[in-house]
Amino acid sequence: MATAGEAEALNELGKVLTETTGPHAAAAVFEQAFTLARRVQSPLDEAHALDGLAHCADHIGDRPTAVARMREAVALYQRLGSTETDQAAAYLAALENSAPADE
Fold this sequence. Notes:
Blueprint: H1 4-20, H2 23-39, H3 43-59, H4 63-80, H5 85-98
Helix pairs in contact: 1-2, 1-3, 2-3, 3-4, 4-5
């Protein structure tokens, strides 16, 4: 049976992969973490996975996806009253401010 701890471990692996092998490999792991977190009803792990996916999308130059994923992450962080809300919201604002006007 899958657990929130497994989703958390996948999110941590995604962070490591972002720094070592790059955003494409990391994104695949963050997708797994997101799916698992949703299945085991762990919204904080969902938010972490979305946050990771946003960073991966940003690293590969897919700004619209980065903004969309970060919006989802911020909404979850806010709903949970997470201490990560402010940092995530600041990153979202930076993404939105650097995006072309037509996005």
